Each structure stands twice: as structure tokens, then as C-alpha cells.
Sequence to fold (171 residues):
Amino acid sequence: AVKEAAKQAVADAATAKNAAIDASNLTAEEKAALKQKVTEAQKAADQAIDNATTDAAVTEAQTDGVTTIDDIKVPTESAVKEAAKQAVADAATAKNAAIDASNLAAEEKADLKQKVTEAQKAADQAIDNATTDAAVTEAQTNGVTTIDDIKVPTESAVKEAAKQAVADAAT
Fold:
């Protein structure tokens, strides 16, 4: 009965940890890896409980098992998702630098940068909503492509129109 109670305590700790893993923003693959650690810790604890020859040893095995399970860290952020967001942010930074380096009018630059910001926000949202590593990668790729596809004109339409007006007035 002592061993059964000890195993139940370990099982309860495992159930709680798995619930925390399920509730996280991690990808399916990240969750599976963590749950594997929980399963291994539970098996090891059950084995130690079975091998214990005294009530004190059972209690110690239970405590060690529960502690091991409780100590499994469930990250608040998915490493896969954070890396994807960084890739999107890098693309946005590069595009904004290209916009800044252009000879466009301030208003034109602002409009383009707004497009970059919107594309980055949309990509980050898609990354957050992704549930698998593959879906995260797809959201990252789509976001980077959308940002890369934002055209930075070599000539400012506003400045060209002004030059044309001056030229027209001169003729």
C-alpha cells in the first residue's frame, strides 16, 4: 500500500507536468520531447519505489521522483518560434535599412516601413499560432518572403513629379 501511494504521488506529479506542457505555446515536437522526459522520470521513480525495501526508502524514492518531474522546465517561449521570429525580424531590419538608404521622400519611406511592420506582425502572429515545427518554418518562410518582396523604388515618385513640374514650367 505504501508503494502504491508513492507511485500515485509520482503519477500525479507527472500528470500535472504534462498538463503544463500541453498548456504551453511550444510546438508539438518540443512538447513531445518534454513529455518523454516526464515519462522517463516517472519510470525511474516507479522502478526505485519497486526496489525500495523499507518504507523510508519508498518515501525517499517518491520524493526524488516527484522532485525530478517538478524540476523539468517548461519554457514560456518556444525556442523554435523565437528563432523564426528572429529570422523575420532580421528580414525586416534589412528591408528598413534599404528603405532608409533610398532617395525616397520621407512620406514614401514611412509608407514602405508601415508595410514592413504589418508584414512582420502578421508573420509573428502566424508563428505564434503554429503548432508544429514545420508550420513554424512555413510561417517564417512566408513572412520573410513577404518582407523581401516589398519593392523599394530606385526613384522617388514625389521627387520625379516635382522635377517634371519644374521641367514643364521651364518649357
In short: Residues 28-51 form the longest helix (24 residues). The mean pLDDT is 96. The radius of gyration is 28 Å.
